[in-house]
Amino acid sequence: MGLIVQKFGGTSVGSAERILNVANRVIQEKERGHDIVVVVSAMGKTTDQLVSLADEITSKPSRREMDMLLTTGEQVTIALLTMALQARGYEAVSYTGAQAGIVTESRHGNARITQINDEKISENLAEGKIVVAAGFQGMDEHGEITTLGRGGSDTTAVALAAALKADKCDIYTDVTGVYTTDPRYVKGARKLAGISYDEMLELANLGAGVLHPRAVEFAKNYHVPLEVRSSMHEERGTLIEEESTLEENLIVKGIAFEDQVTRVTVCGLPNRLQTLSTIFTTLAGKGVNVDIIIQSVTDQDHASISFSVKTADLEDTIEILEKNKSMLNFSKIESEKGLSKVSIVGSGMVSNPGVAAEMFSVLAEEGIAVKMVSTSEIKVSTVVNQEDMVRAVESLHEAFELSGRKASIS
Amino acid sequence: MGLIVQKFGGTSVGSAERILNVANRVIQEKERGHDIVVVVSAMGKTTDQLVSLADEITSKPSRREMDMLLTTGEQVTIALLTMALQARGYEAVSYTGAQAGIVTESRHGNARITQINDEKISENLAEGKIVVAAGFQGMDEHGEITTLGRGGSDTTAVALAAALKADKCDIYTDVTGVYTTDPRYVKGARKLAGISYDEMLELANLGAGVLHPRAVEFAKNYHVPLEVRSSMHEERGTLIEEESTLEENLIVKGIAFEDQVTRVTVCGLPNRLQTLSTIFTTLAGKGVNVDIIIQSVTDQDHASISFSVKTADLEDTIEILEKNKSMLNFSKIESEKGLSKVSIVGSGMVSNPGVAAEMFSVLAEEGIAVKMVSTSEIKVSTVVNQEDMVRAVESLHEAFELSGRKASIS
Fold first, then answer.
1. pLDDT higher than 60, residue A41
2. Is residue B370 part of a domain?
3. Helices in A288-337 by DSSP H: which ranges?
4. Phi/psi class of residue A354: alpha, beta or left (left: φ > 0; alpha: ψ in -120 to 50)?
5. Dist. CA A275–CA A290, nearest whole Å
6. What is the domain range of residue A147?
7. pTM of the complete model
8. Is the CB of residue A26 less than 8 Å from the CB of residue A35?
9. A76: distance to nearest CA of chain B, Å?
């Protein structure tokens, strides 16, 4: 008996039929004696439809009005799910973000939650009601409707769980948990029973996609135990906690990868203190996300800087740099498309020297050239040719003993 | 220069293209130097779509959750219209009912407005902004989202006009104004330049359909001048005011009519004081709307009561009466389908005796039998056979000099 916050994403509530299915999952936990708060996203393609309506009106809608428009999506879902619960004979009540007491900054389109006034929800829970809250949205202190940006519904769920001191926050999604690597690419990929916040954060940032990094960070800061699990299957998912006590003998927990990476090298830069900050401030100011950065000094006066960007950002990157050529004072720009990033993640690395070295050996044995390297305490990322990506992941998955020979706990 | 509240219904905002057209109408008035508040309904078929979604979930959705669901409709429209105005370079801001300060009773599905907190809108108007508010919706004192029921958007517009002391409330619709009678049936039907609140109220109640009676009543109570006009054409519409100064020589202003009327007669009732109230309380309790009522005493102990209902309600009516036969103590029920109601309306009747008599003469000359009669100070209603309806309207329209011989002022 405790309080559980359940979050269901857009696919899980994509039709009336699926909403009825979600109602079943909610009732299941309720019947186990738990208090339940449900956080839902907009139905499947609703958001896309609203965006294209706006597009028919203007190519540059204001952020405030986009928030006004898009927040109707979750409002529809909370009403329908609450009707479904009521039709099954359960007391339930729906709340928009504003009504749920989600207070945010006054930044439309990408606001952060600053406060949660949970009196109303707490009262309803005490009365035995199931509370259904709209994800992704809130209200600022002036009564303006705001949205939380990407991963917003995950963040709403975790924030409510933190405010209400929930025992657990279950993130229902279309996969059954967090895997050692993407099972669509690697046969031996296996669901993890447990993983730490930091490991999940690295995996989430590296594009594992199940959970938004922001929500994981929030969960870590407020010590909210998360479980990523399937909305379609009964099986247990992956538990995300401070220190995962499960499978702790694994040094590497997961392998993340992404393609469409390009390396850009800016050559013949003056070897000055400000060079690095000037280049990346310029790029960030124009919205280009730079990932791995490597600086090398060619001679006493000159340096070159390599960095990786998404291939889709390459044109913008070069245009911005060329525009600022006189200020940045470089000689030329080189770029190499067709690359991928492959990363190993695991908090065991901190106490196990030589993990990076083992990674490089494995790749060398496979004849895979490493173009760039970046490390953190619990992660090693490498950039390799795109055609080597899957082979790199598979061989690392095998070498670090992640493959299915050890049965999943679930 | 003044403040105008403009209201556009669901058909007028039925697509992105139409919303852009509405933006033009708004800008036109703004450019004349007026401050503008726009009230809009949900786009065309949105409400129907939402209702059928709810229907897929449950056949008996709670009123609270229906309000939660349906209010998203207007919220989409306010966002899109505001984007359209902004795209044209005008400062504009959208508000949900709650944000616009529309406070209502705590009755979901059919709440009345109890208060309007207009500080925010007044501030925005002072800053030169166009305010776009969601019709049909409000919030009760507990922060619950409510809806105003049928004709809700008209009521929102009039209520805002009253609170803001607007100079005028323009109701844009798909007809060009209020007509002497329905132009689809009577060729000579002619748009009225002006009409009084009371006359409009009788016409609205009699099914003229352009404007909800509740909104007219509100306008009358708060002395808000209304204009019913077309969202597609430029021409002036019909002005509705306390005492219409236009066309005041007309005794009859308009002729309303509706078909699908049935007369029900309950025979052999005990001639007691409570009989009337018992019958109609029983019917009202079951949601049957009774229109004209006629009581006749057959002998000292017995009375019969005739009343008219919509033909669609006939089955329910008979079922309810039969169920309560022992309590009501009647001998039998008779009913006559295939009837219509034809009414003449005009505040000039009060000071002109004999208008009813003239009506009956006209009908008699046409050989039309009058089955029931009901009168008020500014209205005479008759029930006639359905096949006589259009001929009755045409002959009355001619007899009371409503036909187009006198040109409309617009």
1. yes
2. no
3. 314-323, 325-328
4. left
5. 15
6. 3-174
7. 0.82
8. no
9. 5
